[in-house]
Amino acid sequence: MGSVSLKIGDGTARFKRASLCSSAVNILMIFCVITTNLFALYAFTSSSSSKNNTSNVIHNKNISLVSEQVSLILREIDLSQKKLAQMEKQLLGYERFDLSRPNIANELKIFLQRHQLPLGKDSRTGITEMVSSVGHSCEKNSDLLSQFMSYKLSGTCPDDWSLAQKLILRGCEPLPRRRCFSKTVSKLGFFPFPVSLWKPLGNNTFNWSGLNCKSFECLKGKKLSRDCVNCFDLVSGGNENQRFLKGKSKNDFLIDDVLGLGNGGIRVGFDIGGGSGSFAARMFDRNVTVITNTLNVDAPFSEFIAARGLFPIYLSLDHRFPFYDNVFDLIHASNALDVGGGKVEKLEFLMFDIDRVLRAGGLFWLDNFFCDSEEKKQTLTRLIERFGYKKLKWVVGEKVDSFGSGKPVVVLSAVLQKPVRPG
């Protein structure tokens, strides 16, 4: 019993709150049960023992009865605890880490240890102990996680970022912290900001381990996703250099047109699945700060964005956005919203989190979302309509799916304004 501390989330620690059903209360209840049974047993045997106070046989029998009764109570308590643990597992949908298993890395055991507050319960927050935070799916990948946590203390970390990303993509997020030094790569040759936004970068300033390509020459012409076709080519006049400035179809909205819909109130934005960071670069030219969400799937996206002088954030879209409510003026997203493998609930969770971090009056820019079927388009349309956003721009057209089928596919582009909702 007691409060359940869910080790899921976007922070580096979680706290267990004291409650009326805390372990102290449980111990008191157990003590009361045992005491009550002992008194009952004493009352039951006292009359017979009073007849012959000197009888050692009766005295020993009474002690034996007490011992049996206590053993029975302890067995019942143990059985109840096992039943509660099973119920908790069914309610939460996952198992807790069994740190007694022999294949668990020692560093993982140390990281997951609970730490009691030295002065007891905190009067302001009500917490009694600190609990480290790891994703609940880490339990299902404990072998990989132990491999990730196996390293020399205060030494150089293994070059295993691809293993970390594999764990993240399996829902093991956030990952535990480590006590080792990450591999460093020389960052010489960077251009000063803002020249760095559109200057080609050298191969030697990036970590190519775990990737099929080992250079930007290899990445040229590669279709890494629908939103990143040759997106690492920053050469003047190229496709990436012209994105958001010149449109090839009616679905390609221009940055200046969208910013005009914000009436001068666009200052900070969030780009979901932002490729190589070109959206953030164009926004900087217009005095808008944009954070770009990305993972290093088949290319060093995060390092590339940072090398341009922009701000990448490394997390999957299964992770709750690590931002406070109502902080962004603009959120830009494209085919990164294509999550869940057809599961509507998966998209709903993502859309509600987008709505949470977008301020009232802020703009949600849906940019060339590929609708492979009429059902997908209708599903997304119905979901958007549930939020009550004002449709400032709404364009349905066709584009050739160069990343997938190679055939024309329906695409949806929209600029939506979040309403002010009553409290």
TrEMBL record:
Molecular function GO terms recorded: methyltransferase activity
GO BP term, example: methylation
Protein name as it appears in the record: S-adenosyl-L-methionine-dependent methyltransferase
Family: Belongs to the methyltransferase superfamily.
Protein topology in the membrane: Single-pass membrane protein; Single-pass type II membrane protein
Transmembrane segments annotated in the record for this chain: 24-44
Compartments in which it is found: Endomembrane system; Membrane
Tagged with keyword Transmembrane helix: yes
GO CC field: endomembrane system; membrane
Keywords assigned by UniProt, alphabetized: Glycoprotein, Membrane, Methyltransferase, Signal-anchor, Transferase, Transmembrane, Transmembrane helix
Pfam families hit by this protein: Methyltransf_29
